[in-house]
Amino acid sequence: MRPLFHPAIEDVRPEAILHALSDPRRASIFAAITRAGCVEACSALSAVGDRVIPKSSLSGHFKVLREAGLIRCERHGVEMRNHSRCAEVEARFPGLLAAIINAYASGSGRDPGSGTDAEAAFDGAARDPAA
Length: 131
Fold this sequence. Notes:
The chain is an alpha+beta fold.
């Protein structure tokens, strides 16, 4: 099995983060991972609002989030565990994630699916870089 690519935090680019979170489904997935700390089953995030994301699309969303430096994925047998890198990103680009989520929450962007839950997840991680 091929190893998964995870950029070093020094190599994470703001344009990659903006691209990854420009999709409301990916923003919602990232918010759910950040809120949970670790999501063990990718299929647990297959529903965004009342829509179900097909597995092939879901794996593509995880790849974009991972390659942007927003999440870290680890294989454990047949299971993939996903961890948020929110604290690392916040330390490198202070306020960037909070600004993106606030834009979704204020209605100036498209709804990422969980609105205030997403805002709370990012806000908590932004305040506590050790989270």
